[in-house]
Structures are given as C-alpha cells and as structure tokens.
Amino acid sequence: MSGNSFGKLFTVTTFGESHGQALGAIVDGCPPGLSLTEADLQQDLDLRKPGTSRHTTQRREPDEVRILSGVFEGRTTGTPIGLLIENTDQRSKDYSKIKDQFRPAHADYTYMHKYGVRDYRGGGRSSARETAMRVAAGAIARKFLQERLGIRVRGYLSQLGPIVIDRLDWSQVHQNPFFCPDADRLQELEDYMDDLRKEGNSIGARINVVAEGVPPGLGEPVFDRLDADLAHALMSINAVKGVEIGAGFGSVTQKGTEHRDELTPDGFLSNNAGGVLGGISSGQPILASIALKPTSSLRLPGQSIDVHGNPVEVVTTGRHDPCVGIRATPIAEAMMAIVLMDHYLRHRAQNGDVQIDTPDIEKGRSRD
Amino acid sequence: MSGNSFGKLFTVTTFGESHGQALGAIVDGCPPGLSLTEADLQQDLDLRKPGTSRHTTQRREPDEVRILSGVFEGRTTGTPIGLLIENTDQRSKDYSKIKDQFRPAHADYTYMHKYGVRDYRGGGRSSARETAMRVAAGAIARKFLQERLGIRVRGYLSQLGPIVIDRLDWSQVHQNPFFCPDADRLQELEDYMDDLRKEGNSIGARINVVAEGVPPGLGEPVFDRLDADLAHALMSINAVKGVEIGAGFGSVTQKGTEHRDELTPDGFLSNNAGGVLGGISSGQPILASIALKPTSSLRLPGQSIDVHGNPVEVVTTGRHDPCVGIRATPIAEAMMAIVLMDHYLRHRAQNGDVQIDTPDIEKGRSRD
Amino acid sequence: MSGNSFGKLFTVTTFGESHGQALGAIVDGCPPGLSLTEADLQQDLDLRKPGTSRHTTQRREPDEVRILSGVFEGRTTGTPIGLLIENTDQRSKDYSKIKDQFRPAHADYTYMHKYGVRDYRGGGRSSARETAMRVAAGAIARKFLQERLGIRVRGYLSQLGPIVIDRLDWSQVHQNPFFCPDADRLQELEDYMDDLRKEGNSIGARINVVAEGVPPGLGEPVFDRLDADLAHALMSINAVKGVEIGAGFGSVTQKGTEHRDELTPDGFLSNNAGGVLGGISSGQPILASIALKPTSSLRLPGQSIDVHGNPVEVVTTGRHDPCVGIRATPIAEAMMAIVLMDHYLRHRAQNGDVQIDTPDIEKGRSRD
Amino acid sequence: MSGNSFGKLFTVTTFGESHGQALGAIVDGCPPGLSLTEADLQQDLDLRKPGTSRHTTQRREPDEVRILSGVFEGRTTGTPIGLLIENTDQRSKDYSKIKDQFRPAHADYTYMHKYGVRDYRGGGRSSARETAMRVAAGAIARKFLQERLGIRVRGYLSQLGPIVIDRLDWSQVHQNPFFCPDADRLQELEDYMDDLRKEGNSIGARINVVAEGVPPGLGEPVFDRLDADLAHALMSINAVKGVEIGAGFGSVTQKGTEHRDELTPDGFLSNNAGGVLGGISSGQPILASIALKPTSSLRLPGQSIDVHGNPVEVVTTGRHDPCVGIRATPIAEAMMAIVLMDHYLRHRAQNGDVQIDTPDIEKGRSRD
C-alpha cells in the first residue's frame, strides 16, 4: 500500500536503497511447476547492470541474484520467491555535501518533504538501482509467458536525443550497448555520447516495447485496462515522463477512418490500437513507447538550494549514466512482462483455461 | 480486483452498462465531516453530460445523481457513499445487426474473447457512459481538495485534430462547449467540427489537466509514484492512447541542463518535471496531458468480420460523439482529483497531519 | 480499504445505513455465463428478512432486490453486478433522545470516537441491516458454487442460550423460524423466546455452517489461509464474538493422537480439522461455528453516559431482535460462500482448471 | 494476493521454507522516524526461537535477523524494511520416506492437491518456522505502538491441555518457558510435559492476548472490523482452530443485561466486548483468546496413505514441539500488534491526527 508492490495476482514487492546493504524482492503468485534457476534471472540482470560500456555509470556491481525460496528441485512451488542482491560497490564517499543539498530534478527535495528524513547516499530509495529487482522479477514473468504461452516481450532504443532510429532489426538489439535495432546508426550514437560526456551533459531517449503472441482477451474493463496498467507500470520507471500505446499522441491528428484498425478474415489491417481495444488485448502485438528524461546528475553546475533554503551551486561528480534511457530497455521489458503475467492470471481466475489460441485473424499487421 | 475499482484509500468502484437500468458507484474512504449535496456532484456531471451542443452525441440523459448513503444532515459520515444514476434514454433500437458484428476499433471483438458473452447494446460496459460515475465520484474528491487543502484541479482542450490551442485563458474554458481556453479559436473549432460531421468522420484531441496548490510530499516511491498513478488513471479513460507528465515526450530531445528545473530561494525556475520528482509532488503545479483517439463509430463504412469470421461492412448510424475529446475534460479532471485525494490520504496515514503548507519556494514558475 | 469490501477476486462492496434511502452492493469478479435472476437472490433474502415470526424484529421490510447491471439476457457478463434494495420502513421516529446517548454495547460510542459524527438513526451503518446485501451477494456465490462445482453451503442454529441442539436433521432447518435442525426442540425454543420477550431481555446463540463438496486444494498458505479468511468473514458479522473451525476450542484438551485425522484409502477417519489443513481445504466438509452475543437493545434500563459525559439511563423501545442469532444463519452461509468463491477463483488463477474432482478418499467422515 | 501479505497500510509480506536457504520479510508502511535496530527485533525473536527449553523442538536456530533496508542512521526512513534470517540448521536428513507420505493432520496432503508439487523438507512453507518473520515484523509494530501511542500488547498461556491457568501475574510470564502467568503452576506444567514427551504424544493449548492503551476509534465498519481483522490474523497462525474476542463463546449463554458493558462517567463496568464495539475500539483493553491444536508430528504411529493412495503407517521421528502452544505467545502478540498498527494508520488516513487521548472514561474495568 506504500507503493512498493506491483501486480494484483503476480505481485512484486521490492526493497533496498542505492547504498544500503542489499536489494531484495518477493515475487508472490508465480504458478507452481515453472522450471527456474538463478541463471534465468542473471541473464536479464546482466543486460541492465552498470559498467558494461563506457556510456553508462562506472559503478561496478555484479548484481548477482540469489533465489532464497519458492523454488524446489529446480521448479517453482507456488510459494513466494525471495530474491536478494547484495550491494558490493557502495564507495565510502563523503556525502557531507550532498546531505544538505537538494540536487535539481532529483527526488532529494520531495523525499525530504514527504518523509522528513532521507537516506541521501546515492539517492537512497529513489535511485534507479532499485530497478535491478524489477528486472529479476520480470525475468520470471518472461520465462512463464514464453514457455507456457509463447508470448515474447522485447524492446529497443527508438530515439536518443535527436537521433531517431527508424529501422527495426531485432537481431541487432543485443549486439550493441544501446539496444539499438539498426547497426548502421551505432557510430552516430557512439559519437553523440562521446561528445555529451565531454560536455558533461546528459540526454533523453525513447524506448519501444513490444509483446508478441499475446492471446486476445487479456485485460479488464474500466480502471485496470491492460493499457492503463501498462501506463502505470512504465511511468513508474525512473525518469519516464510519457507513455504511448499504439499510435499514441499521433492519434490526436488522426481521423476515425485512419485510426480504426479494420478487420478482415485474414486479420487486422493496421495496429493503431497497439493491440488493446477497450482495455483488452486484441491478439495483435502490444505496442508501447516511453519517453525518458535526461539524467540530472551533471558535472555542469546548476542552481539549487540547501535544506536551510540558502542558494547553492550543485555539481555532481559521482558515477552516473549520461543517458538513463540506454539501460532502460530491460527494465521496460520487465515491467511489461509483469503486467501481462498479472493479467494472464486474472484472466484465468475469471475464465479458467479457456482456449487461448491465436487464430489467423489475430496475426494481422502491426506498426512494426 | 476485476478492474472496476480505483484508489487504495479513496476507492471508487463503478458498475453499469450503457443501456442497462442504471449506473452506480461506491466511494469508500471519504473522510467524515465534508459538506456534500447532490448539487455538488450535479455541477460536474452537467459539464460531461451528452447533448449539450451539436458537437456531441444527441442521446438525452439528464444524468441526475442520487446520493444513497454516507451523507447525513448534509455532511459525509465516513461510511461509503452510494451513488446512482438511472438510465432514461436507452432507445429500443434494433440491435440484431450489431449483435453479430465486431465494429472496428471498438471493444466488441476483445470483450467477446475475454468473456464469451457481451452486452452489445451501445457498447455495454465498454461505453464511455461509465465515466459519468467517475465524474460524480471525482466531484467529491475535488470538493475535499479545494475546501480542505486549497488544491484546484482543472483542464482544457489543448488540441483538436490539427488545431493547436496555444493560449491559456482559464476564464474561457467553461464559456464554450469545447473547454477551449482561447475564445479566438472557437469559430475555427466550430467550422472544423461542422465539416467533420458532414463528412461522417471523427477526430482525435489532446486535453491538458493541471492541479495547483498541491503541497510537496504527496506520492509514493517506486511503483505507486504520483505520476505513475496519474498515468494509470488517465490511460483508463476511454479512447486515451497517451499520457505525458510535464515535458513528456519533449524530454527525449532535451539535454540535462535544459530539463532540470533549477531551484532558487524564490522558487523553481521551470517545470519540466510537471510537479513530480521521484514520484512525489514538488509543490509546483502538476501538469498532465493526454491524447484521445478519434471515435470509431462512423457513418463511413469500414471493413470488419462478424462473429462467424465472415467479412462484413460496418456502418454506425447511432448517436455518437465525433470527437470524444470534447467531453473528456471533466473526466480527466475527475481522475486527477481522485488520484490526488488518494495520495493525500496515504500521506496522512504515513505522516499524520504534518504541516503541509506551501511556502514561497514552491510557487515557482510553471509551464503554463 | 475503508473496510466496506470483502474478497480479493470475488469482491463484495456494500453501502447503506439502517434508515438511509437504500442499501446497495457491487459484486465484482463473478465469472461470465452464470444464469442469474433477481429471484435467485430473493430466495435467500427472504430467509433473513425481518418480521417473518414473532421472535424477530417487527420492522416491515420486503427487502426486494434489483439487479442493476452485470446480467444480460439472464446470464452474468463478467462485469460488476450492481444490487439495490430501497429502504421502505424507516419510521419517522423521534431520534432526539438516542442522538445524544451512547447505548451500552452498541457502536454509538465507538463510531463517535472514530468519525466525530454519526448517523444515529437505527444504528446507521453499524446496523445489522447492512447484512441484507451480504446475503444477496452471497446468493450469487452460492449459486455458482452449487451449479458449477457441486459445493453446498448451509447452516443451522446449534445453540440458543442454554438450549443446545444436538441432533442435526437438515430437512428441518428451513421448516421453522429458528433454523433449528431438530423439530423436537421447537417448543422449547418457542417457550424460551416468549419468556425472554416478556422479560424484555435478549440472549446469545451459536450457529454452525458447513460446506460440503469442496474440492481439496482451495486456500492459501500463511496469511490468507482458508480458515483465516473464514474467521475474518464470520467475525465481521454483527454480534459475533467467537469463531471455531473443526474441533475449535475443543482442541485445547485434545492429545495429538486424538486430534489428528487419520487417513485410509477409504477416506479420513475423523474431521477435527474441519476440512482445512495448513490453510487449504482437504476435501472433507468445512466446519465452522460462531458465537453471537445477545443484542443490546433492551427494554430493561441500563446505565450509560451521554455525549457530554453525563450519566443517563438507557431504555430501548424500538423494534429489535431479542436473539440476533436467529436470523444469522443465512448471513453466515453467505459469508462462507463468498470466501469459498473467492478462493476458488484464486485457485483457478494459480493453477488453471486443474481437475478438481472429489475422489472417494475425500468423502471421509465428518463431525456432523 | 497469494496470501503471503498481511495488512493494508502496514503490510508484512513473508517468504521462506522450513529447510530453505533463508526466511525473509518486507515490512512496508512503517512511518519514518522510528528509532529501530536489529536488537529491537532480536529481543522478540529470542522469545520464539526453538531450543530454549526441553519442552520445545531441539532444532538449533539462532534466528539472527538482519535489517537490509528502510533504516538509516538508526531511524526508519518510511521506505520498505527488508528483513532476513538465514537458516543454519537444516539437517541433511533423509527425506525419501516423508516425500511420498501424507502425514496425518499436516499440510502434506492439501499442499499436494493445491500445487501439484511440494517442498517436503520439514513441511516447507507450511512449517511454523515462517512465524519467525511475523515476530520480527511484529516487533516493529510493537515498538511504534509502545513508543508513540503507549499501547502495550502482551500475551500468556491460559491453558495447556487440562491445566487451566486462572491467575494472571504479568510479572511471571517471561520468567518461565511456558509464558505461564502463575508461578505456582509451573511444576504441574513441567510434569505434564515430561509425561507427554515420554508418551510420545502432544497436546493443545490456549493463549490469551491483551492490548492495553488502545485509544477509542480504531477499526472499520462492516468487513474490516478490528475484531474481524484480529480473527483473521490470529487464525492465520499455524495450529490455531478458534478465536474469541471478549466473552467469546461465553456470550452464547449470556443474557443481554449480563453481556452489555454499561458505562458510567467513571468508565465501563465490564468488558464482555473485549474492547471492540461495532468493530471499533472502545478504549478498553482488547481481549483475544485462541485455541491451538496439538501438533501432529508424533512418535506414535498413525494411519495414512502415500501419494499413490496406498495405506502407510506414519511415525514422525524428527525434532518437534510437543505443544506448539508453548511458543505461540510471541506470535500471537506480533499478529495483534500488526493489526493494531495497520488500523492506527488507517485511522490516521481517514481522520488525521485527531487527538486520541484516553480519557478517564475508557480506563474502565476489564475482564482481566
């Protein structure tokens, strides 16, 4: 209820601060019988972990996850899965300065107003380090969705600052540190990031996430629509400022004849809906897109105030990501997987094992 | 749990179908002692109700709400507030055709897959008629926020198809049927809508919603961030395909030095954050913007299939809104108010009546 | 969250005060396709309604329920079911006296402390009149359980004050106004109640509730055990002061060899567990027993204080039940049915439609 | 949602199996600013931990708890508190026999039906070992209640098999391994338990729990009554088969004049209500009593079946408690504290920091 849990039937609750002893999560509601090992989670965690290229923070965290419960003889038992990652690289940095300052565009100011106290070391609970547990939990959902239902959730970088990536070649996404689906744009991205680092600045990004193989019928009417839950999940990722489903803000200038995805016996003729109609999946690919703001930890000085209300000049010298969007792809995938898993279980509660095949009609054509 | 409730401490649960007997809601969690009458709710309902201009559906529904419980001698008692609106204009139309067709871009196809049965009359539960109850429930939240905390939630049309409204004059918003904040653009809107109606087509829109006077410290970390809950709430409105907070998708091309809202002892120097940092309110105005797709009920024929998978041509001849965005402003305001109310109660649970004054520093400058 | 909802997947939310305009409920989560009419609910409501014999309150309420949504062409659609009962017999009694008094053992004193205001007419929200909606909602659960799963939930009066009913003849239960399963004891009950009414006093009672045909495997580990949820549900009924499962408080003096229900290939040899082991159903009958306190609305004067703290003598002259236990059987059945329904849906979410047959082994012998 | 969480605003989620790697919990919703160290939790854990006398299981577990998050510089920060206890004494016992058997009155049979798989080592998730995390989490609630509100929660053994403890001397409770409040009965208890151990049998028990200093006004109407939540919490403890509030089952034979707790300006004249009226605290002590069944792990052979349905004779030779009631007192205290903490936060959400003093009137006389 204090906002550290997500999902109603597949529920992920996380704890942990950036520079605390450990991060942890409890995944409650995973059905029994799923084959699961720590390696299954580590695979996804390694995609998010820091320090894998010169374009991300240089904090060295192996992010090694332990499964402490809920798995027996290699299979889930239906009981809650306890996950733990010990923090290993909390440098004994001097925090005396940051302690009394509110860094602009960080949560320092708001946490202080909410709680009256705050763990100021590395952002404490507001640090994106927390998302490691989402990736670990999401890996469980992804495995279930893939193995049991043939649902594949994957994402990619579609824009980095001014650089818009138009071509989508899934085979390229994991071949570079940007999750960029177009190999021809890599040099451009490298150069842009190098310039940015020299400048001491940061930049925003856009990530697209797609779920294929989702059967029609997942979702709820009214408040917990599939797209509303996705918006909740994706907007809850650090630095996200916007969420689109399907045609998104493009719908504003569309006419009805243009937007409506016509159906034929051979499938849908377009996917402006992004795979969701009336809050419920249509069998087409689920399409979501998110905007991530530029990180606010900059070497370039900024104006702010201290806890006493006095003006201060803030310079952030720690280890930070110049583009938080770069490492956001696995996090967005994890959140989409958790939402789909949750809605699959809700669907099963209400309807039992109705045959959720994906007939020809749902194949349709998607935006991608 | 089936998605018909919203809010954890201020909880709104709705029921009702477009052409059923009645719509209803239970508002649970309203603190005792709030002065409340049916007129308080009716005021907001009248802004949303159909048939107020030639640009909206001609269905005649007075949307008269009854308060059935939870109010005694003019004040809330802390017990659940039961609300009821009887449907009066469910025309005894022949639904035999629509019964077997899946209208493109409607929830017909997905409801059928989810439930196996559906109330096909006027869209049943998927109809935007359900939002009347949100407006009624939201009116309670708005009254509490306004009277007790001085928080004002209000919205306006910022774009209708190609027509972008740049000027914001709050005094104009309720002077026209479009919720348009610029009187100089009304003729343009009228003409556009008249052409559209002749054409038999529909168009998308963008609505902005703003909450002023929100004290700093409302929100939760991680999953139930204030902005994530807003995204959930706003994306749950019929036809919404995108949600932005603050700079939104504009953040993608911003550099950190540009995006970060610097602070001075006199306040914030900008509001790219949209009033939320780390998921918690900063004391600046909360800024949200939503994209609404064009309605899919068109006189222009579209391809689809029937329940047997055969191709059909669908023409919708009923009473419909050519731009659902026009009536969406009160709904978006209601949902934002419900989210803020919920987070105010959560804040009070965790922190008690901490002094939530809005010192000078929070005044700052907003985007608007 | 304010305590007016019950159930996580089959969720019942109620509203309404004793002397307000109406009582209502929203039942969210009922699977689609269940045949349902108002008559199905009325049947159970008529068993609970007041004024059916001289031993209950003489308030005349037909308790006629309307189904306002969620049912289409005689079947549930999967959308929320809105229920409404208008109050018809709120006598325009003079409440000026009760308004300022705290009746002993009523909720007057505690509601005043909790809310600061209270609807003092007939107990307001604290009145057992609210349970009418539970019975209506429970009737939906009972119908589903009976038709789809062959589960039968039924209860009976097992003790009224000093009169312990030892014999259980189910065919008698609905043949008398006491829900007494032994016809030979009816005269004794009648006489006792007549004496009590003359005396102006009231008396406690014990009700047993049994669910037969429950498949093994329903329930959750740890906090939401089936028995824990039953305890919650049953203790939430007005006037209930104790809940037992199976051997209940008798277990305190049992040795392990006596308590443990041994199994053979032909079934369990006893049912001290009451059909629940480790929080999960065993396939044996679920056995629960509840204690109801005597009502506190008495003609015999009692000491109390008024809202100003002054001593007063309280005499209750209204229409009241001298033994609230008499009408409690349908309420207890309803609550047990709601719990079982909720756990059935939870089971289906986690395990899908696993074959939940009831093999010979589960038949066993029960306490009854 | 899968039953491993308790509490709506003060939420405890646990994980861990008897013979898994570790037990853990996340406590979400603890207000910021509470002084808290591991020693605060260890104190309560040491009261529950095994092996402290010859009358409990001889498994050697130090139950050393680590606080992994949510506490900074000795104070809670308002973020989730992660707790961890590593298991250290999971003997490499041969489980091949137990693996295929359903021990009578254990959860073996029901877990198998629910999940299809089970961690059979030491009962897995169904083991009372899980309650260690409840005690740790409860210690946080108890500290808050005591320090901030002056509420004291404590319990004692009131019956062990045939031995009823009538005298309540709180100072004795922690002076003996039975939590017995009467020093004169200790020899009797020792002798009884020694005989029982020789016999190879087990016995039931009754525990009373009392909360003093609870302000009036905590609780909710209808479903989440304070007593209903207590019943839920207490019945969720392993081996509990009955819960009473106040006069409990004694109410069945009480007349209204006897049961109703009259009020005078000097306070209540009795406490049959057990401190709860209409689901809301009255300011009197909260009184609850629970029945615990005898453990079913016995050296005396019992009939059962194996997973193939064949008859087997079960003999349990491991380390077990002959009376699980003996170590149940700290668990019951923890659960009551968690419920009160949760309702205190709910109260604060709805009413803010209303002055919750305990005027003279509430002191009253209690049953104890």
From TrEMBL, chains A, B, C, D:
Required cofactor names: FMNH2
Reactions listed under catalytic activity: 5-O-(1-carboxyvinyl)-3-phosphoshikimate = chorismate + phosphate
Keywords: Amino-acid biosynthesis, Aromatic amino acid biosynthesis, FAD, Flavoprotein, FMN, Lyase, NADP
Signal peptide positions on this chain: none
NCBIfam families cross-referenced by the UniProt entry: aroC, PRK05382.1
Ligand binding (NADP(+)): R48, R54
SUPFAM superfamilies: Chorismate synthase, AroC
Descriptive protein name: Chorismate synthase
Family: Belongs to the chorismate synthase family.
Gene: aroC
